[in-house]
Design brief:
Elements: H1 2-26, E1 30-34, E2 37-41, H2 45-66, E3 79-80, H3 85-91, H4 94-117, H5 126-146, H6 149-153, H7 155-167, H8 184-198, H9 206-227, H10 229-235, H11 238-247, E4 252-256, E5 277-278, H12 281-286, E6 293-296, H13 311-329, H14 333-345, H15 350-381, H16 391-398, H17 403-421, H18 424-430, H19 454-483, H20 487-517
Antiparallel strand pairs: 1-2, 3-6, 4-5, 4-6
Helix pairs in contact: 1-2, 1-19, 2-19, 2-20, 4-5, 4-7, 4-9, 5-17, 8-11, 8-13, 9-10, 13-15, 13-17, 14-15, 15-16, 15-20, 17-19, 19-20
Length: about 525
């Protein structure tokens, strides 16, 4: 079965690459401009959109041929890196882990202090760059590719764990975490961050950002004291939940083999019917060294494990997808025209109101479209009266097929932002608080805004978007062959989902093209 999964992924990627290559060869140059200069866009936008949609359609055909029913698709090749001679000792070393955690705690303290006592000029203060560039964009890029680093270096969890080691016993946790809360606190946290990043980022200067970090630190410490570290981080620390979702796409996993998780569905830590605990970090920490696995695996396959897909999990994935999409949409000329209408009515706060409408409205629109698609899938596959899943069950089963699309758009939108704004850390190394220091002679370093050409960004963006949608088609097809016993129903159920992904591919390419083409 691993062969079929691998062949499906490779076949889809090769097919998409072949279509893009054909389009490149056959196209005539089109004029466009962006990033302050004119340049020849290698392809007309319409041909890019058609080619991207065709690549997604081809991936559906490939998945339909290679992915058959009657299989769980949960098994995949993996290699335990802890058994490697040198890498294994480093990954399993308590000294390495402790050093990274202490460094994370110190960096968090530095960022908070920098926000509160450093310069009020955001461009020279460490807090905005640390939060938006390093933490949100850089760490999410790393997590989706290589694994859940945040689970190791989360400063609030690490500080609490260090305090427990010093005390010699567990601290706090006298109350049980309320089951009815679920992961709704994580949804609220990430929604607040999304509004901060997309709406109030310019208005929230370093001082405001510093006090937000102080408040979030108090929120986590109080929560861990009341409900225990593991329960709080798993449910209420918003970024632990979001990065845990992203890490499912990555090429690594932590695993504790055994029968302890057999037949259990434990809020994403173990899916029903599985014997192993996968990506359950509290279980991994408490296991004996010889029971631990830190595995290298194919990308994307971790998203085949659904676990317990609750309403807050569904909301978080939709919110993640809509947030990165709105980041791109808000940079288009069309959104500028829309914002201008608010500015005419509310001269001082019109721009913020327009962005708030988008940040709140787009998740609602995406959610309704996704639920409508699931309803169409249920109708296409047949009546739910004969035991087939209804729209609500399908919404839970297919939600993680949207995650590669969100990650792909995240990469496409933020690659230039990361590499250009990441150069600010060269300046901050010499002047860590913006006080005019020059410790290493780099305080006057000039940011190279031409580090990436618009052509490279365009090709990178379309490749990321198409690959992400191909991965989404693969994941959706895997869930379909699990849910439906007959092949015809599985294929029919995927037609509305395929239409949704093709439409979103086209919309994503259009959004990405607007800042370049205008």
């Amino acid at each position: 079965m691993a062969h079929r999964i691998t062949l499906a992924l490779i076949g889809s990627a090769v097919g998409g690459a072949a279509l893009l290559l054909w389009a490149t060869i056959s196209a005539t140059p089109a004029q466009a401009h962006g990033f302050g200069e004119r340049y020849d866009l290698p392809l007309p936008l319409s041909l890019f959109v058609i080619t991207g949609a065709a690549a997604v359609l081809l991936s559906f055909v490939v998945a339909a041929v290679f992915l058959r029913g009657g299989a769980t698709h949960r098994e995949y090749p993996r290699w335990n890196l802890l058994r490697a001679p040198v890498i294994g000792r480093l990954l399993g070393s308590a000294w390495v882990t402790t050093t990274l955690q202490l460094l994370s705690i110190l960096l968090t303290v530095y960022v908070i202090l920098g926000a509160l006592i450093g310069t009020e000029r955001a461009a020279l203060n460490p807090a905005p760059a640390a939060v938006y560039v390093a933490f949100w964009v850089g760490l999410s890029f790393f997590t989706a590719l290589f694994g859940n680093l945040w689970a190791l270096v989360n400063p609030w969890s690490a500080a609490w764990g260090l305090a427990e080691r010093i005390a010699g016993h567990r601290l706090g946790g006298r109350r049980r975490y309320p089951v009815r809360w679920g992961q709704w606190p994580a949804v609220v946290v990430f929604a607040g961050f999304a509004i901060l990043e997309t709406v109030a980022g310019d208005a929230a200067g370093p001082r405001a950002l510093g006090w937000i970090l102080v408040g979030y630190t108090a929120y986590n410490l109080i929560g861990m004291h009341r409900y225990g570290r593991d329960a709080w981080v798993r449910n209420a620390e918003g970024f632990a939940v979001v990065y845990g979702f992203m890490a499912r796409f990555s090429v690594t996993e932590v695993r504790v083999p055994g029968s302890v998780g057999a037949g259990r569905s434990d809020r994403g830590r173990g899916s029903a019917g599985e014997r192993d605990w996968v990506d359950c970090y509290e279980r991994y920490r408490s296991a004996q060294p010889d029971q631990r696995e830190f595995n290298l695996r194919p990308p994307c396959v971790g998203l085949n494990r659904l676990g317990d897909v609750t309403p807050p999990v569904l909301c978080l994935v939709i919110l993640l997808l809509s947030t990165v999409s709105f980041d791109g949409l808000s940079a288009t000329p069309e959104w500028l025209v829309f914002s201008t209408q608010f500015l005419l009515q509310f001269p001082r706060i019109g721009g913020y109101l327009a962005n708030l409408v988008g940040a709140i409205g787009l998740p609602i629109v995406f959610g309704l479209v996704y639920l409508a698609t699931c309803g169409a899938m249920a109708m296409a596959a047949g009546s739910a009266s004969d035991g087939r899943p209804d729209a609500r069950q399908l919404a839970r089963a297919f939600v993680f097929s949207l995650l590669p699309i969100a990650l792909a758009y995240h990469y496409a939108h933020f690659i230039g932002f990361l590499l250009i704004n990441g150069q600010r850390f060269i300046v901050l190394a010499s002047d860590p608080f913006g006080w005019g220091w020059d410790l290493f002679g780099t305080a006057d370093a000039i940011i190279n805004i031409g580090i990436l050409s618009p052509v490279f960004i365009w090709y990178f963006s379309i490749s990321a978007i198409v690959i992400g949608h191909i991965a989404g088609v693969y994941l959706a097809h895997v869930q379909a062959v699990r849910l439906y016993s007959d092949r015809r129903s599985a294929l029919l159920s995927q037609v509305p989902m395929l239409a949704l992904m093709v439409c979103y591919t086209c919309a994503s390419l259009w959004i990405i093209s607007r800042p370049i083409a205008e």
